[in-house]
Please model this.
Amino acid sequence: MIGKRIIIIGATSGIGRALAEVSVAEGHTVGITGRREVLLQEIAAERPLCYHTAAFDITDTDTSIAHLEGLAEAMGGVDAIVVSAGGGNTNAALDFEIEQHMIDLNVRAFTQLVDWAFTYFKAKGGGHLAAITSVAGMRGSRQAPGYSATKAYQINYLAGLRQKARKEQLNIVVTDICPGFVDTPMAKSPVRFWVAPVDKAAWQIYRGLHKQRNKVYITRRWRLVAWLYRWLPDWLHERM
Model:
């Protein structure tokens, strides 16, 4: 990982919280964000000299960037930013409110966050941007069409930023963290297999970031699943 100061956006629970704990244990100073200020304070109280906090809702795009800029300033600058905030749900009934919420969170807010991070690192002269996407973004899903579509957007957006960094010869690493199933409340699929404990997922993510990888599959066996799923013939995919 580039540098020692990390912001993890969406760290009150699940993968984000576990990654924050791993990062602090490895000697990093970590800025954590989330909507639930009480939980942020509980995490920070465990090692108050290592954490900085900022409580805000990333879907409030009028105020999110001000909160992030304030957090970065309080930390004396940032070397890596991980976007862990996101959400999803199954939606076989195609309830538009469910889809709209995922679009607001996984597309609109996500875009604002990664654009700010990329621009911040460009001005700074380098840095490491990472975001948690999903293997679900490889193909469409009848159970969760909105979720798979928004994750496909994230995967492709990160790839575009990686290409942009290379074309402009910027010292910016862009990492796509692509999990399969991780044992968190967000894993709502009715069919689950190879479910990774959240602590194991966090350590694998940390190691992948430390090696500055472009793509990190969690767990590693999901690399094969992602490859097979991507190249699955349409006629077979439609019958699943």
Summary: Residues 5-237 form a domain with the Rossmann fold fold (CATH 3.40.50.720). The mean pLDDT is 89.
